[in-house]
Design goal:
Number of strands: 0
Distance between the termini: 47 Å
Largest sheet: none
Number of helices: 4
Length: 105
């Protein structure tokens, strides 16, 4: 039983970290700022490229969360409802990630 509780705590911690990251970086996904000169455009592009790298890593973490959620649900964990709600909540926020990937092209 302790093993299950550790898995759920790890799952919830990961969801919280990704949710926090999305909150902090959502502004980048919506930014339409354009530079006034070449130097400023290059700086903005570099900043966006760094963001897309972080976004890729976060997407991998999101995939891990979804897999972990399925495992916990398949194990019929007692916190099944909370696990499902957290997974749905974080998944609903992931379209921001897809839009940003499209903008990077």
């Amino acid at each position: 039983k302790q093993w299950y509780q550790r898995r759920v705590r790890a799952f919830m911690r990961e969801v919280k970290e990704i949710s926090h990251w999305i909150d902090e970086h959502e502004v980048y996904s919506k930014a339409t700022q354009l530079g006034y000169d070449l130097e400023q455009n290059e700086a903005l592009r570099e900043e966006f490229e760094k963001f897309t790298i972080q976004l890729t890593d976060t997407g991998k973490s999101l995939d891990f969360i979804k897999e972990h959620s399925v495992q916990l649900q398949n194990d019929r964990h007692t916190d099944f409802k909370a696990i499902k709600e957290q997974t749905e909540s974080i998944s609903a926020r992931s379209p921001m990630m897809s839009v940003t990937k499209i903008r990077a092209i």
